[in-house]
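Thread: "does anyone have the structure for this chain?"

Original post by V.I.:
We have the sequence but no experimental structure in hand. Need at least a predicted one for the grant figures.
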Amino acid sequence: MNASSIEPSSESSFHILPEHSHIVFHCLAPRGRPTPKVSWSGGPQHSSLSSHDGKLTIKDASISRHGGNYSCVAENLAGSKRVEFTLIVT
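Reply from O.Q.:
Generated one for you, tokens below.
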């Protein structure tokens, strides 16, 4: 297996969101053996973030807590792939 089989996918990498809105980032790694692990990090504190099924949900977005760059990483024994998402809260 090669690392390209675990490449994360998403609809878009740049989002502008009104304050107090909700958004869901999708980062899916549909193929790979062993099954790739998907993890998220980022935001103003550049911290690890919890997600469910590769989805990162931000509720009640605020400029100070949620605006910034986010990264999704899919990894397994073949390697890892990273996708970056930028969120601007207005």
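V.I.: this helps a lot. Residues 63-66 form the longest helix (4 residues).
O.Q.: and Confidence is low (pLDDT under 50) at residues 1-8.
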